[in-house]
Amino acid sequence: MTYIITTNSSFVTQLREHIEYPHSGVISKVLLKDKACQYTLFCLTANTEISEHTSTRNATIKVLEGKGLLTLSGQEIVLEHGILVFMPANAPHALQAEENLAFLLILSEKTADTN
């Protein structure tokens, strides 16, 4: 289920209706995608790990429920309901779900340096 939005379109959904946890591991659902951003719902079962990696795009995480630990450029960040994290492009990061964990991941285009 991916909704592709073109210019001047609207999209409304209740995120909690899309949350579902697998028996183990991760379920990811692209909810919305346009030319600049992609909005993906991630649902991780407790004790699931995502190993360290990077992304060529800026990323924002908005935690919806559960608890986990994000390691972002060597800094440990507790993920819990209400936390918002911005990760610049190419920042190394890894994730450990301590409980079932659901979050919205927004990938956006990397902006050009203005220096």
TrEMBL record:
Q: Which InterPro entries match?
A: Cupin_2 (IPR013096), RmlC-like_jellyroll (IPR014710), RmlC_Cupin_sf (IPR011051)
Matches recorded under SUPFAM superfamilies: RmlC-like cupins
Top-rank taxon, per record = Bacteria
Q: Which residues form the Cupin type-2 domain?
A: 42-103
* One Pfam short name: Cupin_2
Q: What is this protein called?
A: Cupin domain-containing protein
> What is the source species?
Mojavia pulchra JT2-VF2
